[in-house]
Amino acid sequence: MNEADFIAALRGLASNPGARGLEDDAAVLEFGGETLVLTHDTMVDGVHVLEGQDPADIAWKLVAVNLSDLAAKGAEPAGVLLSHMLGADDHRFVTGLREVLDSYDVPLLGGDTVRGEGPRVWGCTALGRATHTPVPSRGGAKVGDAIYVTGTLGAAMLGFEALRGGDEADSTAYRRPRPRLEEGRLLAPHVTAMMDISDGLLLDCWRMACAAEFVAFELESDSIPVADASRRAECIRWGDDYELLFTAPVGVDLPVPATRIGTVTDTDFAPLWLDGEALTPEQGLGYQH
Ligand SMILES: Nc1ncnc2c1ncn2[C@@H]1O[C@H](COP(=O)(O)OP(=O)(O)OP(=O)(O)O)[C@@H](O)[C@H]1O
Ligand SMILES: Cc1ncc(C[n+]2csc(CCOP(=O)(O)O)c2C)c(N)n1
Ligand SMILES: [Mg+2]
């Protein structure tokens, strides 16, 4: 079973509307007059971070990728719970954790600590409060909407290569992603659909188009902001950038800088098009476990 097969097998167990059919970045629960947004992400040594990487970076990334899912729902963080597997340089993990929690003013609420064999694994649950309802979903794109991204894609890939190669180039985008919390909050009232891009722009566009049903995402590659134009194809597939991908009606005055990369259409026989060519996940659109 791969990741998509396993999540599909869980769908029958996740009938509560809060689970959003396991087709969104986060769960959404009405609770005590508030709307809670809940998400969980796991990182594995050697899979999500390089073996031997500074644990301060690992702590930063662990919290940041979870906050990014809250950002995609326009939620403000209420706190995080962490799971930690003891190992080398745990004091550096604590240092990085303090840095990320202070940077985003997020309370640490609890977690769990274990020792075990095999590669180290870290988990984080982030809890947030919706700032706008209905909470944007992945599935709301409408025919005629424009498709946008914040920031630039491919910087994490370049950062990964710099860190792995030990060269002088800047690896910050890979080591210390910055969740777009402020942008997500400002955008939430204006978007028809929103998600964060963790697994690569093309794969996440495919998911957003499939979640909406009966729409296609038609993208123009030249319009997509990439960190290295000579490696455009890789920049829009590699992932780990944690920018926001969203759709909004044409003409909406956006409250934050973003780049239009395409249009939602009713083209009915394929959900994703790049420069007029239909793409499928079998062609390698992004990162899949
Ligand atoms: N093991 C699991 N148990 C329950 N739900 C799961 C499990 N794995 C994934 N899901 C659910 O499947 C959906 C898609 O998850 P996915 O991890 O692709 O989203 P994401 O968290 O936005 O992405 P990323 O992990 O790349 O940050 C979400 O609703 C998530 O909660
Ligand atoms: C050492 C190393 N090799 C490759 C990558 C690339 N990568 C791994 S998982 C992932 C998507 C997000 O994960 P998930 O969907 O599990 O949240 C990406 C882009 C990396 N980050 N580190
Ligand atoms: Mg997400």
Please provide a written account of the structure:
- This protein folds into two domains: 3-130, PurM-like, N-terminal domain (60s Ribosomal Protein L30, Chain: A), CATH 3.30.1330; 146-283, Phosphoribosyl-aminoimidazole Synthetase, Chain A, domain 2, CATH 3.90.650.10.
- The chain has eight helices and twelve strands.
- It has helices at 3-10, 55-72, 90-104, 155-165, 172-175, 181-187, 201-212, 232-235, and strands at residues 27-31, 34-44, 75-85, 108-114, 121-130, 146-149, 193-196, 216-219, 244-248, 259-265, 272-274, 277-278.
- Strand 11 and strand 12 (277-278) form a beta hairpin.
- The strands form two sheets. The chain has a seven-stranded mixed beta sheet, sandwiched between helices. Strands 1-2-5-3-4 form a five-stranded mixed beta sheet, covered by helices on one side.
- Bound molecules: adenosine-5'-triphosphate, thiamin phosphate (TPS) and magnesium ion.
- Adenosine-5'-triphosphate binds next to helix 1 and helix 2.
- Pathway: Cofactor biosynthesis; thiamine diphosphate biosynthesis; thiamine diphosphate from thiamine phosphate: step 1/1.
- InterPro entries: PurM-like_C_dom, PurM-like_C_sf, PurM-like_N, PurM-like_N_sf, ThiL-like.
- ATP binds at residues 111-112, 198.
Question: Which cofactors or ions or other ligands sit in this model?
Answer: adenosine-5'-triphosphate, thiamin phosphate, magnesium ion
- What top-tier CATH class of the largest domain fits best? Alpha Beta
CATH architecture of the largest domain: Alpha-Beta Complex
CATH superfamily of the largest domain: PurM-like C-terminal domain
Sheet-strand content, in percent, reads 25-35%
Overall form:
globular
Assign the structural class, choosing from mainly alpha, mainly beta, alpha/beta, alpha+beta, or little secondary structure. Answer: alpha+beta
Order of helices and strands: HEEHEHEEEHHHEHEHEEEE
